[in-house]
């Protein structure tokens, strides 16, 4: 009972926060502070919900339901399994960090902090809703609704080409959403044929639609899949992400790549596999091709980028390939790895995004070629870059290793060929991370962004890098206390989850097992094999 | 199939060993304090760095002594710490395997590690510009990374599963990366570090795939279970695992075809070269194969490939070592070559596992000593590494000269010094192989001994003897050379290592002390009978060949003046050797250049092709191909339109369902 109240509170607290903050237009500092307060209260609720959740308990917990549109059997029904819970926890952790990280962002003219942070909180509420929905129509509505605050956050607060990026993002997502709508209606019809009256209740749909014949399943599967593949994003539906990632303000980018995109991979797990098990098994090879293509393609494109924010976006394309591989390899290790990957990627890539933002805040340019030798001026920032980069390339000891390792070792027994190809992505990941680090941080001081701060390349007459460094030292400060406070929890999570992921795995594994049971597969490698 | 004495099943750790985690925790604690503490720890950071490693050594020694008190069949112990990655059938434990093999490494890593930490206090006391004590931030960072390395290396050798090994494996890779790039404002250092990490990652993927295969076949990655049940795997899988593990070993240990990163790694400070790129980390490949002996015992083909790689690499390293003028690069290629000997040895199977470890230990002493000596020379010579600028330094640096000289004699296998025992045993075991293998592998090992004697004598002559070619010259930073002996904090570790170089071999060898000690981990040494050449002639053959190498070096280098610049007109073999036998050129042509083109092409395609195509479709479906172009002005309208469209569709669809 108290559990369902918790989940409802998790949904409505940020909504309330969004409302309150929206009215604090006169004072930016107050707006920011109130928003931060709400997000921290939400984090406390997340911790309470985590404690209330019983990994050995029911498939869906903390649930509550109310009639919404009784004519169509639509309910406002929410509840979580382990997979949804860890995603909601990730949101709870990231939003305060995003608010802290955006604290000193210069907003475009005529834009207020109240607007920005209100939208952030609105998005938080909607994202929690997407992961918590157990009514398929409610999920669809929230899936589309999330686009609205994101659209405004990119289109109003983003970089120079923000409107192009926002529209592109919106059109892609809307297109996917409309295709999904057809399938949402489809499952309603199918359930209606079987039960007499249609339903949108997830658990009932899993029980009924999964028995439909394979060709029906395939059509319905595709509707959901395309929407999720755009969100995730899988190659070749990924091209909106680099634009959106590059133009979004840093904090928004963190939420976009860290959480919003995960709706796609979450959708695979929550909707595609349990509702359409036959279609999932039938089409898995196709999805795996896209997944592994994404791993390699995303990594190669990340290597070739000059724009740091686009670089982070492309690394995410590669990472989403790993997640999709883990989801569709159909073993509990790979799938638990994929879910953990969703969390870890949010932490690691979120941190990388923030660190890149801190570099850009200093040099004023997104281009890698405008930088060089920054480690000499900002050693702590460089150290943070290393940590984020290592987490991104999944070095053992960091959180990402556990998830990438689980995905690959779990996928190997069923999909050895795809796993071996994806393993090449491990080498490419080292290449793209270290090469960017080398160009931005290592070597002598160089690049327009760095030298510009010393009065332009021409003014850098002093050939010794010592003299140059001395002149630049005062103009390029190392991390401030605020920036340290923003990054410190992420560093702690990177290391803690790298060494002791068990608490999270304990929550994830039973839900993954249930998903695989619904899918009708068993692990090829059994205990005591 | 041959049967070998099985590796012993472990018992639970007890007594002193229950605190085995301290070995790892101590240096990692040091690293954490120095990295998080920031400038506040500048003043005493290096002392803490030394203290944690010395403490780990002392504890390791206590652990070792307690183990010697146990009966041989109780010396393999496991210490369970916690479950690291548990998902259903997969359970990766975080635990330690404390056995004779890991103890030998613990003592090597913490012992040599402690000496090199102490040495670094002096070596890192002045920064790149030659200033002393201006800012100790650099030195603190250096000790933090060194501590991190020691911690990771101890995880590598102490872990009780292939995944904990992998954790240490990539952990030392990180420490190596950070330390090669220690002077990261130097582009060469940054590039070398990246290259090292990447080539290592290629090997790491091999190691990872081997782990995946073990899990798929046996459902476990723990040593105990994998080793006990290795025989259940089909021959093909065993061979695949053996080769994939070898790939990992090649990356970490600079073996063909992944050897090119190790010489470049000399961009790092010299203590790093001594500890990481000579004595410990680069020998991890040898450890991996020796540790996996229950797997290699079952695949003769796998062992054969290991032997071939070892033999090939020992020759490649020795040949290239003859051509370089950079003192550290000669020593680096010497390391490549000597690890080739070790890999060759462990490839011989039960006849060689322990011999590989034996040579690894003696090499750890004399090669670390040689690198510290080279560092001492550089310390006194404005960081100069070009041997053509050295000459006649023996008088100016007597301690360095003597300790370096003893290391040199140990390396070329001077009778009764440590290299003499360990290398001769490997050569003998290689010659003892049946048929063509005895001649080929024995021959390669013996030829390598001659080459080793040649390049090392050349190095000695060019550095310590002959004309003082540095007189009147200036180093790259415009200072004159004033060669001088290094401070005691540097010379004392060199003296200790020189003792090891002289007596280490005989101490470990006599009474089969080491080989017997390792039996519970590696099985009994199978002394092969017969083969190409009997054991008794080997010492004479090797010493004779080495003498030829020394003589040749004296004839070519010692007798005549050394030109101050390297002669340009040289024969093809010398040119090839100077170009690393075209290893880098091959990598460049096969991977780097096509890779660059591929990424450029893909970026173009992604921006124009994929994006264009999808944009086009999106625009088409949106009803107006001009919408995207007009987005700057018309976006609110189009947005509203889209929402409206969605709403209409939704309502229509719902109504349809409702009324049909």
TrEMBL record, chain A:
Residues 133-424 form the NADH:quinone oxidoreductase/Mrp antiporter transmembrane domain. This is NADH dehydrogenase subunit M. Pfam families: Proton_antipo_M. It is a multi-pass membrane protein. It comes from Actinoalloteichus caeruleus DSM 43889. Keywords: Membrane, Transmembrane, Transmembrane helix. It comes from the Bacteria. The chain crosses the membrane at residues 6-24, 33-53, 73-100, 112-131, 137-157, 169-190, 218-237, 249-271, 283-304, 311-332, 338-361, 373-395, 415-437, 484-501. Belongs to the complex I subunit 4 family. InterPro entries: NADH_Q_OxRdtase_chainM/4, NADH_UbQ_OxRdtase, ND/Mrp_TM. Its main location: membrane. It is found in: Endomembrane system; Membrane.
From TrEMBL, chain B:
Residues 160-444 form the NADH:quinone oxidoreductase/Mrp antiporter transmembrane domain. The chain crosses the membrane at residues 19-37, 44-65, 101-121, 142-159, 196-215, 235-251, 272-290, 302-323, 330-351, 399-421, 441-466, 487-509, 537-557, 639-659. It is found in: Endomembrane system; Membrane. It is a multi-pass membrane protein. Keywords: Membrane, Transmembrane, Transmembrane helix. InterPro entries: NADHpl_OxRdtase_5_subgr (IPR018393), ND/Mrp_TM (IPR001750), NU5C-like (IPR003945), Proton_antipo_N (IPR001516). Residues 84-129 form the NADH-Ubiquinone oxidoreductase (complex I) chain 5 N-terminal domain. The keyword Chloroplast does not apply. Gene3D superfamilies: 1.20.5.2700. This is NADH dehydrogenase subunit L. It comes from Actinoalloteichus caeruleus DSM 43889.
């Amino acid at each position: 009972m108290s559990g369902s109240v918790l989940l409802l509170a998790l949904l409505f607290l940020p909504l309330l926060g969004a409302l309150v903050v929206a009215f604090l237009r006169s004072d930016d500092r107050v707006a920011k502070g109130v928003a931060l307060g709400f997000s921290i209260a939400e984090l406390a609720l997340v911790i309470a919900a985590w404690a209330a959740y019983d990994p050995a308990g029911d498939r869906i917990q903390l649930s509550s339901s109310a009639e919404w549109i009784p004519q169509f059997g639509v309910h406002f029904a929410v509840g979580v399994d382990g997979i949804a819970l860890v995603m909601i926890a990730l949101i709870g952790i990231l939003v305060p960090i995003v608010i802290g990280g955006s604290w000193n962002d210069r907003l475009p003219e005529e834009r207020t902090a109240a607007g920005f942070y209100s939208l952030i909180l609105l998005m938080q509420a909607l994202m929690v809703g997407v992961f918590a929905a157990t009514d398929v129509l409610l999920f669809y509505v929230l899936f589309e609704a999330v686009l609205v605050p994101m659209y405004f956050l990119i289109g109003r607060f983003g970089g120079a080409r923000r409107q192009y990026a926002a529209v592109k993002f919106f059109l892609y997502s809307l297109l996917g959403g409309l295709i999904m709508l057809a399938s949402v209606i489809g499952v309603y019809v199918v359930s209606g044929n079987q039960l007499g009256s249609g339903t949108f209740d997830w658990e009932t749909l899993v029980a009924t639609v999964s028995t439909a014949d394979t060709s029906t399943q395939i059509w319905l599967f595709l509707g959901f899949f395309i929407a999720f593949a755009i969100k995730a994003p899988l190659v070749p539906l990924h091209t909106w992400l680099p634009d959106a990632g590059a133009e979004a303000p840093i904090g928004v980018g963190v939420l976009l790549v860290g959480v919003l995109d995960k709706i796609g991979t979450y959708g695979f797990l929550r909707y595609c596999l349990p509702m359409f098990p036959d279609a999932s098994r039938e089409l898995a090879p196709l999805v795996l091709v896209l997944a592994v293509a994404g791993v390699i393609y995303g990594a190669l494109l990340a290597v070739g980028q000059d724009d740091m924010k686009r670089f982070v976006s492309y690394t995410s394309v590669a990472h989403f390939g790993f997640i999709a591989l883990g989801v569709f390899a159909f073993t509990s290790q790979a799938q638990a790895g994929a879910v953990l990957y969703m969390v870890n990627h949010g932490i690691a890539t979120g941190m990388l995004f923030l660190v890149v933002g801190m570099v850009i805040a200093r040099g004023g340019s997104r281009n890698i070629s405008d930088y060089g030798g920054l480690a000499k001026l900002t050693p702590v920032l460089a150290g943070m870059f290393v940590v984020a980069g290592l987490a991104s390339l999944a070095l053992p000891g960091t959180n990402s290793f556990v998830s990438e390792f689980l995905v690959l070792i779990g996928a190997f027994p069923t999909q050895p060929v795809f796993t071996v190809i994806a393993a090449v992505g491990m080498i490419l990941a080292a290449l793209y991370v270290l090469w960017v680090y080398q160009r931005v941080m290592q070597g002598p001081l160089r690049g327009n962004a760095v030298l510009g701060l010393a009065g332009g390349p021409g003014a850098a007459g002093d050939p010794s890098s010592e003299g140059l460094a001395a002149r630049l030292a005062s103009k390029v400060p190392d991390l401030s206390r605020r920036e340290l406070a923003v990054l410190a929890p992420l560093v702690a999570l990177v290391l803690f989850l790298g060494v002791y992921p068990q608490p999270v795995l304990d929550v994830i594994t039973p839900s993954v097992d249930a998903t695989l049971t619904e899918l009708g597969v068993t692990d090829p490698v059994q205990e005591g094999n | 199939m041959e049967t070998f004495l099985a590796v012993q099943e472990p018992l639970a750790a007890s007594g002193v060993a229950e605190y085995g985690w301290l070995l790892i925790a101590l240096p990692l604690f040091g690293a954490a304090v120095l990295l998080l503490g920031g400038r506040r720890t500048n003043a005493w950071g290096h002392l803490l760095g030394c203290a944690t490693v010395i403490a780990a050594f002392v504890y390791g020694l206590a652990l070792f002594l307690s183990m010697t008190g146990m009966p041989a069949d109780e010396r393999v112990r496991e210490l369970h710490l916690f479950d690291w990655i548990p998902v259903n059938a997969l359970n990766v434990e975080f635990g330690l395997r404390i056995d004779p093999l890991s103890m030998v490494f613990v003592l090597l890593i913490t012992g040599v590690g402690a000496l090199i930490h102490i040495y670094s206090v002096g070596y890192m006391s002045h920064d790149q510009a030659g200033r002393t004590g201006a800012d100790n931030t650099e030195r603190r960072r250096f000790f933090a990374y060194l501590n991190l390395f020691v911690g990771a290396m101890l995880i590598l050798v102490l872990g009780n599963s292939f995944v904990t090994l992998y954790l240490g494996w990539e952990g030392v890779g990180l420490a190596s990366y950070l330390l090669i790039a220690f002077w990261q404002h130097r582009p060469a250092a940054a590039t070398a570090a990246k290259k090292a990490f990447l080539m290592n990652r290629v090997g790491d993927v091999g190691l990872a795939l081997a782990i995946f295969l073990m899990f798929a076949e046996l459902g476990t990655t723990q040593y105990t279970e994998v080793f006990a049940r290795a025989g259940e795997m089909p021959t093909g899988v065993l061979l695949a695992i053996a080769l994939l593990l070898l790939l990992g070993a090649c990356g970490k240990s600079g073996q063909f075809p992944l050897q090119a990163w190790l010489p470049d790694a000399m961009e790092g400070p010299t203590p790093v070269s001594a500890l990481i790129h000579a004595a410990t980390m680069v020998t991890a490949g040898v450890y991996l194969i020796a540790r996996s002996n229950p797997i290699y015992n079952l695949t003769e083909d796998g062992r054969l490939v290991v032997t071939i790689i070892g033999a090939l690499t020992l020759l490649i390293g020795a040949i290239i070592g003859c051509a370089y003028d950079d003192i550290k690069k000669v020593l680096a290629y010497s390391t490549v070559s000597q690890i080739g000997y070790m890999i060759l040895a462990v490839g011989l199977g039960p006849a060689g596992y322990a011999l590989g470890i034996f040579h690894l230990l003696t090499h750890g002493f004399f090669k670390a000593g040689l690198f510290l000596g080279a560092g001492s020379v550089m310390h006194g010579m404005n960081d100069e590494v070009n041997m053509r600028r050295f000459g006649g330094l023996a008088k100016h640096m007597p301690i360095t000269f003597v300790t370096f000289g003893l290391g040199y004699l140990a390396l070329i296998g001077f009778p009764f010094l440590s290299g003499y025992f360990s290398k001769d045993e490997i050569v003998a075991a290689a010659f003892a192989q049946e048929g063509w293998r005895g001649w080929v592998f024995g021959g390669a090992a013996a030829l390598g001994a001659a080459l080793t004697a040649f390049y090392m004598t050349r190095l000695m002559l060019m550095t310590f003897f002959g004309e003082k070619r540095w007189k009147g010259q200036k180093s790259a930073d415009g200072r004159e050379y004033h060669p001088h002996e290094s401070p005691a904090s540097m010379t004392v570790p060199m003296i200790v290592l020189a003792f090891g170089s002289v007596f280490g071999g005989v101490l470990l060898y006599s009474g089969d002390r080491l080989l017997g000690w390792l039996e519970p981990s590696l099985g009994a040494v199978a002394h092969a009978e017969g083969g190409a050449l009997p054991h008794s002639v080997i010492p004479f053959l090797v010493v004779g060949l080495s003498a030829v190498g020394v003589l040749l070096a004296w004839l070519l280098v010692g007798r005549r003046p050394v030109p101050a610049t390297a002669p340009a007109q040289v024969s093809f073999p010398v040119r090839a050797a100077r170009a690393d036998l075209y290893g880098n050129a091959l990598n460049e042509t096969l991977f780097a250049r096509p890779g660059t083109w591929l990424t450029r092409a893909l970026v173009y395609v992604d921006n124009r092709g994929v994006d264009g195509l999808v944009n086009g479709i999106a625009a088409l479906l949106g009803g107006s191909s001009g919408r995207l172009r007009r987005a700057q002005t018309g976006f609110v309208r189009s947005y509203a339109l889209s929402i409206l469209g969605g709403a209409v569709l939704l309502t229509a669809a719902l109504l349809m369902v409702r009324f049909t």
